[in-house]
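Hey, why these numbers?
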Amino acid sequence: PALTDGRIQVVDRPISIRGGIVGINSFGFGGSNVHVILRPAGKATNADVPRPLTRLLQACGRTEAAVKAVLQKGKEHATDNSFLSLLNGVSGIPATSMPYRG
């Protein structure tokens, strides 16, 4: 009944969330259960952040083309410290998963 009367809906497109907090539950086969509560991250403006002299961007991927695509995105978002930090975080994945580096 909750799906038909609107109390629960399948999210198939971006929607506004009242209060900005959402809970996600995943019940998997074999007893793998995961639960998380998410809220929007406050985005700091880059205007107040001092600019470093130079930033070295590390990239990894399963193919050479993937590494080139990551480095290109890094160039496109060169002033977004949050984005660049996420890319650098991914670069620490073991080489067996992402053998190409740049």
